[in-house]
Fold each of these.
Amino acid sequence: MKKKNKIKIVVNGKHLSVKIKFSLKNLIEKLKTPINKVAIELNEEIIDKKKLSKIFLKNKDKIEIVHFIGGG
Amino acid sequence: MNLDLLKIANKKFKSRLIVGTGKYKNMQECAKAIKISGAQIVTVAVRRVNISDTSKPILMDYIDPKKIMYLPNTAGCFTSKDALRTLRLAREIGGWKIVKLEVLGDKKNLFPDMIETLKSTEVLTKEGFKVMVYCNDDPLMCKRLENSGAAAIMPLAAPIGSGLGIQNKTNIKILRNQTKVPLIIDAGIGQASDAVEAMELGCDAVLINTAIAKAKNPFQMAESMKYAVISGRKSFLSGRIIPNLRGSASTTNKGLI
């Protein structure tokens, strides 16, 4: 019965299970991501970082969180 | 004395050496080499955050983007779609508009796919990006990139990471004569003399990663490249003598005993 309160999402290719009414802001906080150093995509659409608390995740959502690394 | 500055999309830089941040042993080594090189622009790549451990130090902890300009690249992108996605994300991370576009078409030699590169340049320019474009040294394609609004033309000297030096000096000279935006050698530099040569051919800057990062002593090589770029630039600006097959004595015969 508990499972009904959960949804499955994919973050950076990894499967995660979160509760319903879970916002992108909740996700960023859960992952302890430094928000000013990343960009976020939800189902291949870039998300305005100011609106994270207003966006609630749905089952099967795909999220990408990226940052800068060394490169030539 | 007039300052000889590098101007890219209305931004001005004293250093004409752009350094890549890949392939170093660790981020400390990378940051130190960049400091020694005097570079004011560094290329960076866009990749997934490691979500299982977000406490690990990241590039921004070592190289402050407020002090050194990050130039996001599209390393690893083989289609225009992927390159556009990557650079839109890069802009979102920190508002960067000046970007390095690199759409590869050949996994073995890492040559650019110029058709995809041209398409991407057009789209990105319309979206307000200032696009510095990694390209081959074909004057016709380079002209088309420039006409599409490229902020800098960045031909390869030789394949990425090969260290072979400038393979087609003639094309670089032709490009110098026809290019009005900054012309920057990107890829193929192996040693300081290659960087000198690029600057003596009239290039506005040089982009180096592997030659510094993979040198036995990256710090010394970073310093060497710094002076090579300065030396080559000054040599280019000084107006060299006309080469002559005949000797010309440096000392007067007047007063000879």
Amino acid sequence: MTPTITLSHINKVYANGTIALQDLNLEIGASQFISLVGPSGCGKSTALRIIAGLGQMSSGQLEWGQGQTPKLAYVFQEAALMPWATVRDNVRLPLTLAKMPKREAMAAVEESIARVGLQGFEKSYPRELSGGMKMRVSIARALVTKPDVLLMDEPFAALDEMTRSRLNSDLLSLWNQLRWTVIFVTHNIYESVYLSQRVVVMADRPGRVVADVIIDEPYPRNEEFRTSIDYNHYCRDVSRHLAEASLKGADRDLPIATL
Amino acid sequence: MFWRQLTVLILGLQEFLRMGWLNPPTSINLFSNLSKVKRSGDQDKPRTLPNHPSLIKRTLSPNILAPAVVGVFAIAAWEIFVRVTNMPPYLLPGPILVFQTLISSWGELFPSLLVTLKVTLIAFIIAAISGLLISVLFAQSKWIERSFFPYAVILQTTPIVAIAPLIIMWLKNDTFLALIVCAWIVAFFPIVSNTTLGLNSVDHNLINLFHLYRASRWQTLIYLRLPSAMPYFLGGLKISGGLALIGAVVAEFVAGTGGSQSGLAYQILIASYNLQIPRMFAALFMITLTGVLVFVCLTWLSDFLLREWHESAIKREN
């Protein structure tokens, strides 16, 4: 059972005085697919790291619905694979660290590798794989513990458009089967609208939430949705919020080129 | 005796070549690669398998041919120079004379080589193990590293020639041990310094990942830090191998031990006292060759261990 996540009044100030997050309030429902969208420096990754327990908040509260911390999995922007280990051993890592017996672990590893469509590459080393395949390994590694919550920090940002859209579709179909809660950080508006039930728009300096757009479209979403008028409306809506936020900040000391 | 040992050496080398050289991960890739195309995924790249060109082709590759040509020319020039200028052999012997001396004094020189080699190898193995353990200790806490690293540097920068007499004096009952200690002092630092750097150069995302999955300190060391440090450790070994030999030779020079336990340095020393310069050259040649062999073996070991994943040991395709 995936829990709800409640973030209340979270602030994060770095030692150099940068306000990374200012009064962040978010309530994330069970099995929700939510995206955090915003320019770089808006604190979206910081928020994700705080949720994962990889970063400390300066003040505020983070609450999990069922009282106990659920099983988390994290996918970084880089695949972050161990170059000396095969695909199989990379995927198995979380289970190795949890000291799961080998036979049980291997079954879970095979299942996870099959889910991301990498059968046949179990014995390959990361350097033999393309960027998209590395990211699939990274996702398989995240899935292997059967997590409740999947945290993704711009996972497909470094990939080309074709690979990205393919991975997006595959991620959605996995979510349809497994129904984790997904918090997906990205700076790509189209990607966020295509994937999520809800797009949270953030702005920088200080990092804050400026809009919360519900994408009220049924799943499974296919290529037709990507070309539909509704999809375009949602994208326009999200980018309008982003533009407004950056206009409000236009009096800041930014060079014109960045606007 | 010389020829018999030479035959054994050549046979051993052939064995070595068959195992390693014929399939070295870092030979230059002049020859076409067999490509095995796997099932296509997104942007799937074909996986290349190493090819096995013949030994003749390998020997004729520029990597081996070019330095060999230079060597032959240099030796020929040396011989011609000695003959043309009528240089007396006690000043500069020609290469042919050196080779003849090598054969004629093989009976005395070879046992000495074994002594030097024994000191070198024991010191090197101790240096590798102790170096690894010390750097693992350093990696456990910044405070330990901060407190002790400077002393490792001091030990390294103090000239071994200057402290060798002290060590030999302190361990005067056991010269062999003294020689090992001297060689160890020179050899252990590159390993400590390199491995410490390696243990601290771990991918940040992987550290985060281990943290997220609540890995223990021990697990992080075994599954993350040590494998990450492996290329650095092996790089340290390559430097240290040569240094252990130098340390052993220097210490022998200082100790000047004779008798059954005398190494090559002692042979050089005695030869120079007796103005047997060709013999000196012969011993020198043996030391140099040993150093090169140590380096080649360690390079091969490093390439073998890293062949699957590290950039240093991977063939490039273009």
